[in-house]
Write a structure and sequence with these properties.
alpha/beta; 2-enoyl-CoA Hydratase, Chain A, domain 1; three-stranded mixed β-sheet; 10 helices; 13% strand; binds ligand LP6JUW53
Amino acid sequence: MIRSALSYPSKKNLVLQCLRRMSSLVSTSVSEVHPGVAHVTMHSPPVNSLSLSFCQELSQNLQVIHKDKSIDIILLQSDIPGIFSAGLDIKEFTQPKERLMEFWTAFQQLYIDLYGASQTTIACMEGSAPAAGCMLALSCDYRVMTSNTKAKIGLNESLLGIAAPPWLAQQMMDTVGSRVAELSLWRGTLYAPEQALAIGLVDELHENPRERALELAVAEFQKIPRQARAASKTLTRQKRLKHFHQERQADLEHFVNFITQDAVQTQLRGYLQQLAAKKNKK
Ligand SMILES: CC/C=C\CC/C=C/CC(=O)SCCNC(=O)CCNC(=O)[C@H](O)C(C)(C)COP(=O)(O)OP(=O)(O)OC[C@H]1O[C@@H](n2cnc3c(N)ncnc32)[C@H](O)[C@@H]1OP(=O)(O)O
């Protein structure tokens, strides 16, 4: 059974407790029965889209965990049925320039906090993870997805008239290989769980991803010395992170210049209308 951090009297848990109270979109809890495992739960209805405040809250939760030496595993999960995350909040793309810059900076920071976490991270996907939802999963060390065929995962940005940023495209290439990533990116393919497993976009399918992730964390991952896991991550990720920091400002400027183009804005409005029309048809 998972108990909230609220039930812990230690200093560490007081910090988590404060965070939980402050945060309405993301919360962290630690398991009494499984020490060292933190559950970071996204709950921003209807679809966990990554708005500015959502990115900031998720980052804050991760930053508190990073400082907590007693936690060595992070399970990233959603409590919205059928949804992991719908990716970036498309409404943010229509905001004025200053807000766009703040938004993209927060999204970049979220990538740093999740991809650069020293803890072992597991994405527990009980539902769909398009675009930046897929980025959250790709930033984790291990991905367990529901076997429910209604769920989809992938980088579908091209269908919105935009392209994934280079560092996200790189994550896809690192995970599934250049050729499959190349095809997926321009087609905007969203994969069903079995297809995602076949190309290596996810590591396992399970009817209960949270239960399986916890089992993996305790029975397998925690048996590997923590410092060895952290050092292995540094080996494989530090080059990407260094490059990201060097390019961060250019990435921000490119995003703002790209997204504010009239043609892109028209396309995005059309996509939002399509989503609304789909909902009305249900
Ligand atoms: C140089 C780089 C430049 C640019 C890079 C930009 C990078 C972008 C990365 C991204 O993440 S773009 C976002 C891409 N995301 C999507 O395309 C997902 C769209 N959503 C869906 O496919 C579906 O909503 C879903 C499969 C996630 C869930 O389906 P369902 O449960 O049937 O829900 P509804 O479709 O009815 O949606 C409910 C509600 O939520 C709104 N919504 C959905 N997704 C988003 C979103 N990403 N942002 C904002 N709002 C979203 C949808 O419009 C409905 O709103 P209502 O007001 O009608 O309730």
